[in-house]
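The methods section describes the discrete structure representation at length, but only in general terms. The central task, working out the structure tokens from the amino acid sequence alone, is never made concrete. Nothing conveys this as quickly as seeing an actual entry. For illustration, here is how one protein appears when written out as sequence plus structure tokens:
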Amino acid sequence: MANWNTGHNHFPADVGVQCGEKAQQSVAANNHLDTEITFPKAFYNTPNVVVCPCLGNFANCSVGVIATSATGFTCRIFNLGGSTVNVGFQWIAVGTPK
């Protein structure tokens, strides 16, 4: 387990951070879309993942992680609005590197 009390302004050697961005995808009105992301490099165990909508018209949308493993995760984009939208998202994963 990582020791975060290093006294320095950087990550400990046993913490891996990966991030990325998914291009805009069409999500139908009052529906959801699941998107699978594969990490560039697998983690030792399941990391913590955070997603955020960042591209397109996401005023009536929300995103969440619905499944995570050491090799990737599934992001669900919810469109709560009355029309089809194009939405992309950014993600960051923090865990123990393999």
In short: Strands lie at 16-27, 31-38, 48-56, 61-68, 72-79, 85-95. Residues 2 and 13 are 8 Å apart (CA to CA).
